[in-house]
Amino acid sequence: MIWQQRIERLACQLRQHSPLPARLVCNGQSIDFGLFEQPLVTMHIRKAAGLRYLLSPRLDHLGEAYVRGLVDIDGKLDDIIEMAHALARRGKPYPLQRLAGLLFQHNRRADRQAIQYHYDVSNHFYAQWLDPEMVYSCAYFSEGDETLAAAQIKKIDHILTKVRLQSGHTLLDIGCGWGALVIRAARQFGARCLGITLSQQQFEEATRRVKQAGVQDRVEIRLMDYRDVSGSFDRITSVGMFEHVGIKGLADYFRQIVNLLSPDGLVLNHGITSVSTRQRDAPFGAGNFIDKYVFPGGQLPHIGTTLSTMQQGGLEVLDVENLRRHYALTLSLWSQNYEKNSSSIRQEIGEERYRIWRIYLAGCAYAFCNDVVSIYQILCQPAGRPADTLAWSRQYMYE
């Protein structure tokens, strides 16, 4: 009863100062957080322990209460995410940098385990909400009305055109996923490609897809850490990978890329960044939830840090493109696919993991839409090259 009394006091404060169209149902009683005839969101307390999470409504607390089944929520998913952020903004201040992120030690073993935790849910799980090529990164909507499948192909072509990939070039794709980029690079651009991943299931499926596409003579997939790659490559791509490196290791990561890049080579890094200049986490505990349930050890640098560590690593930045709006739409489409296939996904991965990914995808869509996080494509070459190697304009990227 004490918990319920404290919740009633919190609801009273919200009604007076910042009303929300939300309702809490506990033990048959309803508590409204605003003076609205019909709430957009209704939270049902299934277990008394769920009440204490609402008294400190950070995003990680609200998310954990939902994931553990202590709270069920009725309403449109977008309204649920909006309400969670509204409650979190009205809660107590929360330190932005999560402790887990500071303690995580990036090394071959830890990084492999983190990658496998995230990506080895099952290939069929990802296939139920990604596009047919299973591209798990921000799509590129040049017009804004493309299908997800078309926008993912446009993203791959945009990347390969930016790096001026030509027939006969060697290409290394760091974090190759299920192989869509290297397969297209071989089939459409005539490149010879190596794709590497730390995910066992991605490795198996990408290898199968390479054979199915008939490009096994030009594409190789390896289960391999980027630190163990040797050789020289004309072009290097890294899409949705450097978030796993850790901020302290970024300069060394880019040094390794320079070591693998031919003197006249080009590299493109496509990755998520923080909007905080202090390298802080996503606010209100969102980063803590992601670290615990989704992406162990992930860290997001600010774009300024990314650019400076590229320079430290021996790269010259040639072009920077913000794709935040593109990722907001990509995630929204992923979330819609997830909702459409909710019954089969829940059956495959279980209720708890279903809930984790449900709010993760929708929450990330909100974050990119509202400038909580961002994403950039950055084109580079080895530092110190003559100026006459540079393109006069960006026009070639769109031809």
UniProtKB/TrEMBL annotation:
UniProt superkingdom: Bacteria
Q: Name one GO molecular function term.
A: methyltransferase activity
The chain positions of domain DUF7884 read 27-86
Keyword check for Lipid metabolism: yes
Which InterPro entries does the UniProt record give? CFA/CMAS (IPR050723), CMAS (IPR003333), DUF7884 (IPR057206), SAM-dependent_MTases_sf (IPR029063)
Q: Which UniProt keywords apply?
A: Lipid metabolism, Methyltransferase, S-adenosyl-L-methionine, Transferase
Pfam families assigned: CMAS (PF02353), DUF7884 (PF25371)
- Kindly indicate whether the keyword Transferase belongs to this entry: yes
GO BP field:
lipid biosynthetic process; methylation
Q: Which SUPFAM superfamilies match?
A: S-adenosyl-L-methionine-dependent methyltransferases (SSF53335)
Q: Where is the active site?
A: C364
The record's similarity note reads: Belongs to the CFA/CMAS family.
Q: What is this protein called?
A: Cyclopropane-fatty-acyl-phospholipid synthase
Species of the source: Aquitalea magnusonii
Lineage here is: Bacteria, Pseudomonadati, Pseudomonadota, Betaproteobacteria, Neisseriales
